[in-house]
Each structure stands twice: as structure tokens, then as C-alpha cells.
Amino acid sequence: MSAIPTLIDGPAGPLEIRFSAPADAAPKALALICHPLPTHGGTMDNKVVQTLARAFSELGCGVMCFNFRGVGASAGSFDEGIGETEDAAAVLDHARTLVPAATPLIAAGFSFGCYVQSRLLPRSNPDKLVLVGPAVGRFQIAAVPKDTLIVHGEADDVVSLADVMNWARPQALPVVVFPDTGHFFHGRLIELKALVQRHCFELVQGK
Hints:
The chain contains 5 helices and 8 strands. The protein is α/β, with parallel strands linked by helices. Helix 1 runs parallel beside helix 5 (189-205). The relative contact order is 0.17.
């Protein structure tokens, strides 16, 4: 599959997607990535999102990125995560038609995208969940599985580390903290990619 953006039918009109897969083999997993807050410029071209996409692509995954409603060529307008969850569900349904049925799912999100992935969990039931800079201060992110990879910057000035720890603590969730790092992981994206790959390696290696 090509990584050229295309349009599919979505709940609020066309949704802009970008899917890529290995050229010479079946995908070892399917990765669905949700981007940060649309009202603050978040798109599927965000550097953290694209770092996640490269991480999964290098592992041999089929990778699905997309723009939420009202972003890029996607129709509609911002819906506080409710409509965006329906967007993600529609994109996941479409992605499942592009890979073998038994292919495991990796769900990943950055910031607001973590909120959407958490809302989608009852339907997506991913094999791995990766949350980077989860926006717990503004959005009520649901409880997540114990083996979720949660990554946050110590110096995040968008979502405070204290808020993330207060969310994680009652769930006994580990949080990987990048010292002296802000919300967008400037200068630390290579390390972020390597961390994500280590977390997901065993899943894709077995397939």
C-alpha cells in the first residue's frame, strides 16, 4: 500500500487517511495512531505521530494515520473527543480490511490522541497500547491495561507530569519519564522511537 493520503467515508463525511505496509510481506501487526488536539494544530503530520509511525513501520507493521474531523481534508468540526472516537472507529474498521484478520493491533496516541484511544478501547481491544504525553489534565482518560506503555516528559508544560502521575497512581501504572523533556519530545524523538520499538518487539516478532 502507498503512504499517499486518501479519503474514506467517515461519520461526519470524508476522512483523510494515510496507510503504509511492507512491500514484500504481510504486516506483522496493524498500528493505528491518533494525533494531538486539532484545536491546537494537531494533525497526522505531527512529529511525534510520525515518529510513532516510523517506529511501527520499521518493525514491519501496517501503519494507519489519519486526520480527525475538521483537520486537513477530513470533513466536520471538533467534537471534544466524542466524534473523534467515531472517526477512529471508522478508520480502524477500514484498516482491518487492508490486513489479514488475525493481525494483532497496536493502538497508539499522542496527547489528545491518547484520550481518543482510551475511549475506543472497549471496541478496539488492542494487543498493545502506547500513550505518549497523555492529556489527562483536560480530558478524562479512562483506565487502561496494566501493560500499557505510558511515556511523558518531565518538563512538559502542556500536560504536567504531576497530573499524569496522579492519574497513573491509582491504577498502579508505570510511567516512563524522559528527564528535562517537553511535551513534543524535541531532541528526544530517536530515543522515543527506540523505546516504542522495544515495547512492541516481542508482539511483532512472534507473528
